[in-house]
Amino acid sequence: MRVVIGIIIVVVAFGVIYWLIQRQRGWAKIRTDLKMAGDVQILDMKVGNGKNFIAFARQLTAPGKIIGVVANEKQEQKIRSAIKEAAVADRAKVVLTDITNLAFADHRFDYVIITGLHQVKPAITRGRVLQEAMRVLTAHGTLVIADSGNMQRYEQLLSYYGLKNIQVKRISGHQVLMAKRN
Predict the structure, then answer these.
(1) Transmembrane segments in this chain: where (predicted)?
(2) What's the domain count of the chain?
(3) Which one, of 41, 52, 113, lies nearest residue 82 by Cα?
(4) From CA 112, how far away is CA 128, in angstroms rounded?
């Protein structure tokens, strides 16, 4: 019985490691496809663990900047430490604000990234998050949504908001929607 449990643990561990590697490769491809380099302005509306946030920051050169929105002070401190450790403080900043009412000027960001939008509850609030993303996106900006579902609904809303060239790709169990404003 112990042998079977050991085999199951090893298989699950390898599966998780494989999934994480594939996810990192997928995000690397997205970063390459989007050509997020130089002095662009990026908003990451849901930073999460900060790995992608830091990777995006490394691609930029000042005055390019990525601003990450965090949910609480504990996450804010964690991401600030990651920024310092990665030596990207000249290109990365973290703020504690409400994603349904962002504290940024209209049309400020060339790229807006939203991950895990399905976690925003209730569902109607997701529409408000998308409205805020559209408000802060520049006239020729690109919106990127990485989520495990709801892409058809997001596509409908984004078409209504006037986004063009909406593409959905599959990456490690998630779907990634990329849409350009013009």
Answers:
(1) 6-21
(2) 1
(3) 52
(4) 14
